[in-house]
Design goal:
The protein has 316 residues and is of the alpha/beta class. The protein has twelve helices and twelve strands. The strands form three sheets. The chain has an eight-stranded mixed beta sheet with strand order 3-2-1-4-5-6-12-9, sandwiched between helices. The two termini are 32 Å apart. Bound molecules: beta-D-ribofuranose (BDR) and calcium ion.
């Protein structure tokens, strides 16, 4: 039997319920070899999201290093989202305590180490502010060619969610996003265009809970918590943002993906942090981003349930 060709992956995020669900999904993909987890301030402070990341790594029995990244954006003050994710940044189900030491390297140096040592080009999946990735590109431009793709959850070509123009991850650090979008590195963006259609309804996560394995029960508990605030905003299902940045890599056929030139608004009274697409190629700039615009929601849910089923017999 031929061996599966492994794709080296770095998971960079600010867990966060949807980051965590995305990482559960990533851990089930046989083609993925998760090389490191790196954390960035966003949904909560850096200390909190790093502790969460280490607990998720323990939950998933990941034998990898978690490295702590930037505690604030490249410019300006940090915005956090306790309304969605609670005081811990990952309120809800109990999790195991970290079982690995925190990396002695910073997130940026850990990413650089992974890139340097990897024979294959590495995919970075970033589900928080793009601060670490931007800092990596600025500190180590020679490593750009070792990046296969940066798959991001961030932005929204048609609307924002934190302001009318901006989505949270981009608004936390617009200068970082600008650096990434102008880097020339292959980029895929799961913005609100798709993630607000990636709705997981209560009956969907009851299917996950009914799997009765410990990871599935935690995932269902994360949905329970995350949905409290999302529901109060009028949504009938949980807007399952971050898992899209993972799922669109493994099941691109269920997504509608289009190439556009996208820029980041850095100023403006209302639109700082907006992702602006040149739909009609008025700028003459070549596309710099694969923009994920839509999905087959039911297949997305089925694949999520299928991923959670892989933890049957698992012990925490
Ligand atoms: C993004 O903001 C965060 O609260 C979520 O984890 C997701 O990455 C959605 O706007
Ligand atoms: Ca996130």
């Amino acid at each position: 039997m031929s061996e599966i060709k492994k794709r080296p992956i770095i998971l960079d995020g600010d867990p966060g319920h949807d980051d965590a669900i995305g990482w559960v999904l990533a851990a089930t993909i046989p083609e993925f070899e998760i090389k490191a987890i790196t954390t960035v301030a966003g949904n909560q402070t850096l200390e909190k999201v790093t502790y969460n990341a280490r607990r998720i790594a323990a939950l998933l029995h990941l034998d990898i290093e978690v490295a702590k990244g930037r505690n604030k954006p490249l410019c300006g003050d940090l915005i956090i989202a306790p309304n969605f994710h609670g005081e811990t940044g990952l309120d809800g189900p109990a999790l195991p305590e970290p079982d690995h030491e925190l990396s002695k390297l910073s997130a940026i140096e850990k990413m650089a180490e992974v890139l340097r040592e990897s024979e294959e080009k590495v995919t970075i999946i970033t589900t928080g502010a793009q601060t670490n990735v931007a800092a990596l590109l600025l500190a180590h431009p020679e490593l750009k060619e070792k990046i296969a793709l940066i798959s991001t959850m961030g932005g929204g070509l048609r609307n924002g969610n934190w302001t009318s123009g901006a989505e949270f991850n981009i608004l936390v650090d617009p200068e970082a996003a600008y650096t990434v979008y102008h880097s020339g590195v292959p980029l895929q963006m799961c913005g609100l265009d798709v993630t607000e259609k990636a709705l997981v309804y209560p009956e969907d996560w009851e299917r996950i809970r009914a799997l009765h394995n410990p990871i599935a029960e935690v995932v269902a508990g994360w949905f329970d918590f995350f949905f409290i605030h999302v529901k109060s905003l009028g949504w009938a299902g949980a807007t399952t943002h971050d898992p899209c940045a993972v799922m669109s890599l493994i099941h691109p056929e269920i997504f509608d993906i289009r190439d556009y030139y996208v820029d980041i608004e850095l100023s403006g009274n209302y639109c700082r942090g907006a992702t602006v697409a040149d739909y009609n190629n008025r700028t003459g700039n070549a596309p710099n981003c694969r923009c994920v615009m839509d999905l087959d929601r039911e297949k997305f849910v089925d694949y999520l349930v299928e991923a959670c089923a892989k933890f049957e017999g698992w012990e925490v």
